[in-house]
Amino acid sequence: MLFKADFAFRRVADITPSFLKKYDIRGLLLDLDNTLTTHDNPRPAEGVLDWISKIKAVGVKMVIVSNNHPPRVKPFADKLGLEYICEGKKPLASGFNRAQKMMNIPFAHLAVVGDQIFTDILGANLKRIKGIFVCPIELEGKNQKFIRFKRILEKPFLPKISENL
C-alpha cells in the first residue's frame, strides 16, 4: 500500500542504533519540519542533537531531505553537521535520488524518516525505500492551512506506533 509506513515511532529520537542495525539501515533520509524541530524553528527539538551523535557514532549516514527552501534548510543542517537537499519535491524521487548519491548507499539500506504520510511515506514507498513515520512534534498553526488539511486526509493511514523494536 502506498501510504503504509514500515515502522512508526513517537519521535525521531526513539529510533535506536540497535533498531537500525536489526533492519540493516545504513542511511537515513530525514525530513526537517515537525520531524527534527517544529516549523520555522531554528533550534533542534529536545533530544535531537544527542540522537544525531548516537546515530553518527554507529556509522549510519544521514541527509536532510526537505521540500523547504535553502534559507530554512541550510542553517539548520549546518547546526546539526548534516548534508542536506532543499526543494526535494517529496513525494517525487528527485530529492531521494540526490541524497542516495551523496551517501553512496544502496536504496535497500536506506530509510526515509518523516511526519507526513503524503510526502515522506508515500515518497519512500514510490522509491521502494523503508519508511519510518514519526509523530509530528506539534500540530501546525492556523497559518499552515494546507498542511492542516493534509493531516485530516492522512488520518485513515496513520500507523500504530511500533513498540519494542
Architecture overview:
There is one protein chain. The chain has 165 residues and is α/β, with parallel strands linked by helices. It has one domain: Rossmann fold (3-Layer(aba) Sandwich). The protein contains six helices and six strands, in the order E-H-E-H-E-H-E-H-E-H-E-H. Strands 1-6-5-2-3-4 form a six-stranded parallel beta sheet, with helices on both faces. Strand 3, helix 3 and strand 4 form a beta-alpha-beta unit. The chain starts with 6 loop residues before the first strand and ends in an 11-residue tail after the last helix.
Kindly list the characteristics that best describe this protein.
single chain; 165 residues; alpha/beta; Rossmann fold; six-stranded parallel sheet; 35% helix; 15% strand; globular
Question: Would you identify the regions where 5 or more consecutive residues have pLDDT less than 50?
Answer: none
Radius of gyration, in Å, reads 14 Å
Could you say what the CATH architecture is?
3-Layer(aba) Sandwich
| Strand tally | 6
Q: Estimate percent helicity.
A: 25-40%
Individual helix count: 6
- Let me know the CATH homologous superfamily: HAD superfamily/HAD-like
| Largest sheet descriptor | 6 strands, parallel
What share of residues are in beta strands? Answer: 15-25%
Q: What is the CATH topology descriptor?
A: Rossmann fold
Lateral strand order in the biggest sheet: 1-6-5-2-3-4
The assigned structural class equals: alpha/beta
CATH class: Alpha Beta
Task: For the record, give the distance between the C-alpha atoms at the N and C termini, rounded to a whole number.
Answer: 22 Å
- The structural domain count equals 1
Secondary-structure element order, N to C: EHEHEHEHEHEH
